[in-house]
Amino acid sequence: MVGLEHYLILAAVLFSIGLYGALAKRNAIIILMSIELMLNAVNIAMVAFSRYIVPLMLTGQVFAIFIMVVAAAEVAVGLAIIIAIYRHRKTIDATKIDLMKW
Amino acid sequence: MGTSVAFWVLGIIAVLAALSVVLLRDVFRAALSLVLCFLMVAGLYITLSADFLAAVQILIYVGAISVLIILAIMLTREVQRGSPSNRFRFPAFIVAVLFFAGIAFAMLNTPWQVSSTPPLEPTTPAIAGLLFGEGGFILPVEIAPVLLLAAILGAIVLVREK
Prior knowledge:
The complex is a heterodimer.
Chain A: H1 4-24, H2 28-52, H3 59-89
Chain B: H1 2-23, H2 27-47, H3 51-76, H4 89-109, H5 124-132, H6 138-159
């Protein structure tokens, strides 16, 4: 029987994969995609808590909806920034965008 | 029983799709496997009896966010260069594994107070009551459109031709 721990471990696996992608990749769009993976993993954990701990309150699902709103805003602004950087510098390699690095 | 089978199938496909997002060389294929991962997560919401959230996941992630990402990939023409790793590849792997070990240890050793009540179904009226009803989340619901409006205006200003 599948329980709360299964969903939590699955969320942890997805979050760790997203963490690896966000830390190790050079393409800025891949980094953004990894961040989306991490947000999805958190959503799975939220809904699993809502389903197994407080099945009648649905608070976790409401939190997941707000996370989705913030993720949509984040991906819109993030991709706009990436396209603006690409126009100026003709690259989206995160290791070459180092103007503010000392 | 059916839920268990669905969980294992959806979970394994989701993990494989997520792995191919970070491991594939081709950026476009990585974006497509990200879409597959989002779809599997929507299926997982259904196994958690969160029907409204599954529909929202398909509408927002599979419908909107993936289209934005694919559009950005096509606008930036980095497809030929692939998705190389930076020099922190091995430390990043170590950090991810250590993070997973720590969080899995914490999850498996916490005595969760699992309730045996069957979940609410369908969830849409209950979520509407929570979001818009008395003593619910009406203030965040009012703030979220302001955030979205600011994000849309910011995106337009950033990508506009000078």
